[in-house]
Design goal:
The chain has 378 residues and is α/β, with parallel strands linked by helices. 37% of the residues lie in helices and 22% in strands.
Length: 378
């Protein structure tokens, strides 16, 4: 921990949204130094993007980057993959085979088979494979998870999660908008549009906090914008092994909504409500009791304290949550390099297994929808 990890990046060049977020997140807690990147497959754009970032080494071919960086004594130790979805699996495979740790954007891959192959390869290579499910980095999300694990809600009865946006309510992809273009292109985004883009976030958040995965689901996908080739709305019913029920809604055509990710958990003794647009608070309401507004920085669990940087009343937000995943990944990588167990506070880091669960969720939703909403086992 006395030095920064040498970081590389694939994707995230000029005009990209999530690449800049990853770079800011990696710098926030000062655990990484970005030294090399393949920011674009186009050599000129890759070079121009790297020059803007003052990177020492620029590539336009990620395979060449993996090979040459692995051969350098000062080569990168971990790579961030911030490409469109169709490149996640081939890029991750190239770097894992080169012995380089991976931090990858979600969804993990295009298919469940690809995801399972990546999990097996990471295990075989003994390399960390983190998946950036951002919202699990919030202190109050981690506090909620600790409350559920401690039995404060009693027996879980109902899980409700919604993720609503409106940015694709119009055919933005037809206007040349780069983000909309690839996210609505099944060859680059995969078969799942809204489902893969934000539905997987809702799925992971519910599982992360509740500590449970459904045993079956019934789903419907819909495309509201004429001519769009992927879904822009999804609704899912869920059944849990303990008898609990759940509902998940994700929509990118919900007019008036910005980034409304809300999780509600109802148990036999109490309920929890977390809203991503107000991430520094968590509502805890005991049965027949007063609603309690829990705030970041006060009366927090060790897991929440680990993910907190500034005093109570000083808001932390999206970039800090993202940075927490990078910090947890750095702690784990340093532990692996030292041959010691990872710090227990990094157990909250979403890794490749959660990515595989997300791919299994996508497959089950697609299968259920195609069959008219029948219940599909997970």
């Amino acid at each position: 921990m006395n030095r920064r990890l040498r970081l590389g990046m694939v994707g995230g060049g000029q005009g990209a949204f999530i690449g800049a977020v990853h770079r800011m997140a990696s710098r926030l807690d000062d655990h990484y130094e970005l030294l090399a990147a393949a920011l674009s497959g186009d050599p000129d754009r890759a070079a121009a993007s790297a020059a803007e970032l003052r990177l020492p080494r620029s590539y336009s071919d990620y395979r060449e980057m993996a090979r040459l960086e692995a051969a350098r004594p000062d080569g990168i130790e971990v790579v961030a993959i911030v490409t469109p979805n169709h490149l996640h699996s081939p890029v991750a495979t190239a770097f894992l085979e080169a012995g380089i740790h991976v931090i990858c954007d979600k969804p993990l891959a295009l298919t469940l088979g690809e995801g399972q192959a990546l999990a097996a390869l990471a295990k075989r290579q003994q390399r960390l494979f983190a998946v950036t499910h951002t919202y699990s980095g919030y202190p109050m999300v981690r506090h909620a998870r600790a409350l559920v694990a401690a039995g404060e809600l009693g027996e879980l009865r109902y899980v409700q999660v919604e993720y609503l946006q409106d940015w694709l309510a119009d055919p933005l992809e037809a206007s040349g908008h780069r983000q909309a273009a690839w996210r609505t292109d099944p060859t680059r985004a995969g078969r799942a549009g809204c489902l893969g883009d934000i539905g997987t976030h809702a799925w992971q958040l519910a599982a992360f906090v509740s500590g449970q995965l459904p045993e079956s689901l019934s789903a419907e996908l819909h495309t509201f914008v004429p001519g769009r080739r992927v879904d822009d709305h999804v609704q899912v019913w869920m059944r849990y092994p303990n008898g609990a029920r759940g509902a998940l809604i994700a929509s990118q055509v919900a007019s008036g909504e910005e980034n409304r990710l809300v999780l509600r958990l109802y148990g036999s003794r109490a309920s929890l409500v977390f809203s991503q647009e107000e991430p520094n608070q968590l509502w805890f309401t005991p049965l027949a009791g007063q609603a309690q507004r829990l705030t970041r920085g006060r009366s927090m669990s060790p897991a929440a304290i680990h993910a907190t940087r500034v005093p109570a009343g000083h808001p932390e937000g999206y970039l800090e949550a993202f940075a927490q995943l990078y910090t947890d990944a750095a702690l784990r990588i340093h532990a692996m390099q030292a041959g010691v167990p990872p710090p227990p506070e990094t157990d909250s880091l979403p890794c490749v297994e959660e990515g595989v669960n997300g791919m299994r969720f996508i497959d089950a939703v697609l299968d259920s929808h195609r069959a008219g909403g029948v219940w599909i086992p997970l």
